[in-house]
Structures are given as structure tokens and as C-alpha cells.
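Open question from group meeting: does this chain pack into something compact, or does most of it stay loose? Before anyone orders reagents, we agreed to write out a predicted structure and look at it together. Recording both the input and the output here so the notebook holds the full record.
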Amino acid sequence: MDIKGFLFSTVEAAIKKPGRKDLALIFSEVPANAVAVFTTSTVKAAPVLLSSKHIASGFAQALIVNSGNANACTGEPGLLAAQETTQLIARGLGIEAEAVQVCSTGVIGVPMPMDRIRSAVPALLNGLTSGTLDDIAQAIMTTDTFPKMEARSGQAGGISYTVAGIAKGAGMIMPNMATMLSFIITDAAIEPTFLQQSFRQAVDCSFNAITVDGDMSTNDTCLVMANGMSGNPTITEGSPEGNAFNTVLNEVLLSLAKQIVKDGEGATKFVEIRVSGARNNAEAKRVAMAIANSSLVKTAFFGQDANWGRIFAAVGYSGAEVDQSLLSLSFNDVCMAKNGVFAGGDAEARGTEVLKEKEFTVSVDLGIATGTAVVYTSDLTHEYISINADYRS
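C-alpha cells returned:
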């Protein structure tokens, strides 16, 4: 991956327990235009509270992130810990503390072990010349089973640029901002207002369109930094280069979002929920999320049970305008019900075969208007319970 002007470093700080690198740093050699979206939960971790203030400037130059401790519900000491962390990095890099974003992921309610952070920061700073983005992706993992990365390239004014991203997330995944930690970097020069618009639209179509378990975290953060060091002419809204950048950014974020669903805690299925025929797009998404978050639907997916009735039930309680006499439902290309009525035993047998696949699509047509939505989800398994019953041990 050729991306200009970014340096990376990871170290072991033994924040939760020893044996793995759990403290990571991304540094842009020049101040970068930056946009971030954060959890909409009213219970926000200290790093979210601090970073949301710092990002108001529209710039960032460094990001420090740890795994193993969320620094959430830790009161004033937690906020002071986040502030000290940004100050340590700022002093070491010779930049303002407001140019440092700080993120945490891990157990809620445990004080941040600042003595270990302080001890680890010098090595973290010294390692900036040797780290990789892949190192960062691995350091931020918690219950993830694999690091999540994606990169795409584009051109503006005949000059190539790169958009690269990483994400972590497997549990506590529920849309309404970004649903985990994800960091996107690009060496493209982009007009700040356009960057914000493009990024938020990409988030809505990716991270805000996934769910694993319907739980939103206190720490959800998605950040993009654009440092312009590729040397391309500034990309602006409405230009061919702007449209191309939108495509590249959307591809990166959607790939990361899908990787999260595929790595959902204990998941064995990746399911695309497509809803059409709704009164508007918002109602279509409401229906899709009701299906994707239904425990009964998700356990049926795990059991490979073509129980289409559970899906119709979720449609009915979604709160969207529904006329059951117009409802149709398919698993891949197998019609399970049309005009609200079961398609018959042959359809059930063929639908069951679809649900045996690792990836499949559920399509619901409300038959009312033209609203559409796409949401991605996983099944709900015994393993999900086991992972979360033992999470703090």
C-alpha cells in the first residue's frame, strides 16, 4: 500500500493483560483535514467526549488508540486520563494536543492504567518509522477474529492517491453513527466541506447499515484524515474527480462494514436484507433493521429454518406503513410468500437450501411505493452467548 505522509506504531502496554500489542499511533506528517462521527448513545466514553471537541477544528494530525479498556463510565479520572494521553502524544510529536484524537475500546467501567500508558508512550513514538497500518488493525482487536483492512486507489489531475482504512468490531454492533472503531486515511487533497459530506454519506451506506446484535457502544468512532500529500489538485464536490472519490470512499467503508458483520461474534451466516416498495427510504430502513435485529429471525438463520413468518412478523412491528396483502418475500431467488400468502411446500424446501449457504439475501417488497434500503446482518448462535458470558474474564 502506497500512501504518503502517514506513519504508524504499536506497542504492548499490557492495558488489560500482557502478551499482545494494545496501544497504537497513527501520525500524519502534516496537519490533515479531518471528520469524525461518534456514538449517539447518551452514555459516552471519555475519549469520545474529548475527541468530539478536538475534531471541531476540522483538523487532526495524530490518533492514539488502545484496546483492552474502554475508559467509559470512569468519571472525571477517565476524562483526565484521556486528556493526559493526548498531551503525552502532542509533546512527543511537537504538535498541539487539540490535533490529537484519542480512542479506546474494551471493558467498560475500569479505570485506565495511566502508569502503563506513560511507560509505553516513548517506545510508541520511537517506533513510528517502522510500523504499518496492518499493525494498527491488529492492535485494536478485542473479540475480533481477524484484522479488518481495505484500500483503494484513485486519480485526480493525473496524480494517483490512496484511500485506506481499518476497523474493529465483532460485538456491540448496531447502527446509528458508526458502530465500532474505524479509521480512514488518505493522501488525497480534498476540499474540507466536500470531505465531510462525502464521509457522512459513506458512513450512512456502510457502518450505519450493519447490525450484529442490536447493541450500540459507548465508544463508537469513525474518523477520516486527508493530508493532501499525494500532491493532486484539490478534489471538490460535483466534479468528475469528486464523484470518483465518492466511489472509492464508499467501497472502502462498505468493505470494512461487511467484514465486521462476517466477523460477528459467533456468526456463521452473512445476510443481506433488501427492502423495497416502502413509503420512503427511511421506512424501508426501519423494516430492514427490524428484520436484521430480530432474535427470532437471526436464530432461524442459524438453524437453517426457512421460517418466513418470523420475518413478516418483524415487518409488521417495525412501525412502517404495511399492507400485509401486498407483502412479498424471497430468499435469494426463491419466492417464499407473495401478496402476504405462503408460496407452498416446494418453496420451503428450496428456501431451506438457500439458508444452508454461508451468504444469502433476504428480499422483502412492501408493494406500497418506491422506498428502498439495504442492511447487512449475521445470525445469532450459541457461540455468541459463550463469548459474551466470558468477555470480562
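Observations to bring back to the group:
The longest strand covers residues 23-38.
The chain has two domains: 6-262, 270-389.
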